[in-house]
C-alpha cells in the first residue's frame, strides 16, 4: 500500500466537504479528534 500524496489528500478532503457539507465539517473534525484522544488514552492504559 502506498502513502497518500498531496493529490489524494485533496481529493479526500473535497469528498468529505461534499459529503458532510461545510457547516457540519467543524463538528465532524471535532468528533474525530475526540475519538483519537480516547483511543490514545485507552492504549496507554
Automatic annotation (TrEMBL):
Task: Name it.
Answer: Sec-independent protein translocase protein TatA
Keyword entries, A-Z:
Membrane, Protein transport, Translocation, Transmembrane, Transmembrane helix, Transport
Might you name a Gene Ontology BP term for this protein? Answer: protein transport
Q: Does the keyword Protein transport apply?
A: yes
- Which is a Gene Ontology cellular component entry for this protein? membrane
The beginning of the lineage is: Bacteria, Candidatus Woeseibacteriota
Query: InterPro entries in the record, alphabetically?
Result: TatA/B/E
The record's listing under Gene3D superfamilies reads: 1.20.5.3310
- One Pfam family this chain carries? TatA_B_E
Q: How does it sit in the membrane?
A: Single-pass membrane protein
Where is this protein localized, as stated in its record? Answer: Membrane
Amino acid at each position: 500500500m502506498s502513502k497518500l500524496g498531496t493529490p489524494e489528500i485533496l481529493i479526500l478532503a473535497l469528498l468529505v466537504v461534499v459529503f458532510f457539507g461545510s457547516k457540519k465539517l467543524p463538528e465532524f473534525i471535532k468528533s474525530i479528534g475526540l475519538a483519537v484522544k480516547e483511543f490514545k488514552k485507552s492504549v496507554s492504559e
